Amino acid sequence: MIWLILLLVIAGLGLLWAAARQRRATGVPGGRLIYSDMAGWSKLEKPLYASNLGLTGKPDYLVEQGGHIIPVEVKTANPAQGPYDSHIYQLAAYCLLVTQVYGKRPRYGILHYTAGSRPGRTYAIDFTQALEEEVLEIIRQMQSVSLRKGVDRSHNQPQRCARCGYRSACDQALTQ
Q1: What angle do CA 140, 111, 120 make, to 5 degrees?
Q2: Which residue ranges make up each domain of the chain?
């Protein structure tokens, strides 16, 4: 009987260890998962929307931890020298959306890289006032450009066109 109890305790510890390892591999911090946009995890929720910013977005995860909501974005590319600026700005935009939708300003967001030369890298990006101002300025610039007619394609890369959400309406697409 004692052996059975000991075996069950060891099996339980093994399962806890495996679950913790799996959570670390996803880049999701500990806490209650309140939103997921990753296929297979849950039903896709509607995107976060802030009408006053003209901004819509779907972070991969939102985690509630200690009364704070943390946006998590998972990327397959893995830059050698730290996160790309574009990834940081995307995460900052999600922080803005969380502030608008939930009324709670995130202190930081998480970027998790799953592939590349150093897979499994995770970065906590502080959502500072300076970063907020930068991303608001980028949003203003993007909105200004989108109001103009005839915005030209900014690259010559067919693979980018192939993944673009505007490809079907674009008169400059490099792919069909």
Answers
A1: 155
A2: 31-146
Of 143, 59, 153, whose CA–CA distance to 106 is shortest?
Answer: 59
Residue range 31-146, CATH number: 3.90.320.10
Q: How far from 113 is each of 56, 98, 120, 131, CA to CA, in Å?
A: 23, 22, 6, 21
Cα gap 134→139, rounded to integer Å? 9
pLDDT digits (tens, 9 = 90+) for 52-72: 998 989 898 888 888 889 999
Q: Which residue has the tokens 């009408």?
A: 51
Q: Specify the pTM.
A: 0.68
- Structure-model confidence comparison of residues 19 and 87, the more confident one: 87
Q: Which residues of 45-59 are buried (b: 16+ CB within 10 A; e: fewer)?
A: eeebebeebebebbb
- The span from the CA of 7 to the CA of 9, in Å, is 5
Task: List, in order, residues 6 or more apart from 118 with CB less than 8 Å away.
Answer: 78, 80
Which of the two residues, 176 and 76, has the higher pLDDT score? Answer: 76
